[in-house]
Amino acid sequence: MPRASIHFPAGFLWGTATAAHQVEGRNTNNTWSAWEQQPGRIVDSAKAGLACDWWGGRWKEDLDRAAETGQNAHRFSIEWSRIQPAPDRWDESALDFYREMARGMHERKLTPMLTLHHFTDPLWLFEPDANGYALGTGGWERDDAPELFGRYVRKAVCALKDYVNLWITINEPNVFLNGGWLNGGFPPGKNDPKTAFKVASNLVKAHAIAYSIIHELQPEAQVGIAHHHRTFSPARPWFLPDRILADVIFRSFNHGFMDALANGTLKLLNWKTRIPEAAGTQDFIGVNYYSNDLVTFTLDPKRLFMKLSFPKDAELSPTGFIANIPEGIFQAVKWALRYNKPLYITENGVEDSEDTLRPQYLIEHLFQVWRAVNFTWPVRGYFHWSLVDNFEWERAWTQRFGLWELDVETQKRTRRRSADLYAEICRENGITSAMVEKYAPKIYPKLFPG
Predict the structure, then answer these.
(1) What is the rounded CA–CA span in Å between residue 352 and residue 58?
(2) What is the rounded distance in angstroms from the CA atom of residue 133 to the CA atom of residue 51?
(3) Cβ atoms of 289 and 329 closer than 8 Å
């Protein structure tokens, strides 16, 4: 067999990504903790519970694992509801906790990338509904939500700027918006396009305020969002309604927020507004990529006239949630070049409890990232989702994304084979033919032909 290797630029960041509610545990004062109490919201009626027990201190051993396996960065998030448990109260002990964590990353030679908002909000931001859950009106529908978010950002950045230089203001605002206000799978569980546009406007304004505050307090900081990128292609290219719908969905999902942060104009579906203060408020682009979709036009308005599917010949993850389409990450990077900013792959991974598809998925996707780098496209780092199995939102514990397996009952971690593969990649700063032969021999001829 031919022997070869591919390498990434010096200084490339290799890390994993986590999110507060998914790993901390003991979260009882945010929207998702309330959502988990409502029947039918979460698969198997599961709760995050202890999650990975990071709030109990087990972040230390997990970050030890990250550092010991060659990683040099970690993306994490902090919890607004812990730092500001009530409108008029700040919890300094929570800030101390996050300071210790960020300092711990430096001690382990892990560059921190901090996300300020990752799908969760404090309950006090909402008004109680008839069931007693604070998920009725309010939240990001409030006119003052961007300013309230800004107050939290100022407090957090003042506390953490000595340890953090890479900031993500909002994780996947397009997914957050779709889940909460268009398909009802996330709190507050609405399907209201007009209200969704108001929320989108407030999220853009919140990002702009946060960007300004961070640069006021830390001029040298780098600030961006983490954008979930998906390519929506017509399932039947010959059928005009499929083509039109795929184009509309692609532009709304991918261009809406990103264009607003570039030029100050937010366009989603049939609505458009100017938010001039948002123009030019990204120093880098975070790209989250998992898979792509085919779009079929339907006559069902409850499904927004569309059906999404994967190509029939695609390799699927165990629950069918992700199709292995590695070329999509190359296309995502190529698409992001339109904004003329440095890029980080801020999430990429596959749910795979048996760890059979993950080695192939990881190698094939990183090969495509390397292709992008080889075009001198400015990709600065890669963060694999995730370090350890965690609570996957409405899908709970049914999907396992971790390099380390988690036993939820005992909190025992078990190292998966993919952790060894990723360790070799991180230490090599690249991929060798020997790695492919060892971990994913099926794709060897594809990556190293001849």
Answers:
(1) 23
(2) 22
(3) yes
Taking only the tens of pLDDT, the chain with its 450 residues reads 557 999 999 999 999 999 999 999 999 999 999 999 999 999 999 999 999 999 999 999 999 999 999 999 999 999 999 999 999 999 999 999 999 999 999 999 999 999 999 999 999 999 877 666 668 789 999 999 999 999 999 999 999 999 999 999 999 999 999 999 999 999 999 999 999 999 999 999 999 999 999 999 999 999 999 999 999 999 999 999 999 999 999 999 999 999 999 999 999 988 999 999 999 999 999 999 999 999 999 988 877 788 999 999 999 999 999 999 999 999 999 999 999 999 999 999 999 999 999 999 999 999 999 999 999 999 999 999 999 999 999 999 999 999 999 999 999 999 999 999 999 999 999 999 999 999 999 999 999 887
170 in Cβ contact with 206 (< 8 Å): yes
In this structure, the number of other CB atoms found within 10 A of the CB of residue 137 comes to 12
User: Alpha-carbon distance 66 to 62, whole Å?
Assistant: 6
Beta carbons within 8 Å of 241's beta carbon, 6+ residues apart: 297
**Alpha-carbon distance values, 235 to 73, 308, 335 (Å):** 39, 9, 21
Q: Determine contact, residues 139/202, Cβ cutoff 8 Å.
A: no
- CA distances for 196 relative to 7, 118, 192, 274, angstroms: 43, 18, 6, 16
Distance set, CA 384 to CA 166, 186, 418, 423 (Å): 17, 23, 11, 12
Asked whether 202 and 257 are in contact (CB, 8 A), the reply is no
